[in-house]
Write a structure and sequence with these properties.
Layout (H helix, E strand, L loop, with lengths): L5 E5 L2 E5 L14 E4 L9
Antiparallel strand pairs: 1-2, 1-3
């Protein structure tokens, strides 16, 4: 993500990242990602 906060949820855990953050997930963990900020998250 390049702007604003985002959250990743997997296996009952969650992690929030801000601009220029990376969140690494296990290959077999189905993630759910969401925009945690007040504005729409840019996609590019």
């Amino acid at each position: 993500m390049n702007e604003g906060p985002g959250q990743a949820h997997w296996d009952g855990q969650s992690e929030t990242g801000g601009p220029d953050s990376l969140i690494f997930l296990a290959a077999d963990a189905p993630p759910f990602l969401r925009n945690a900020g007040p504005r729409p998250a840019p996609t590019s």
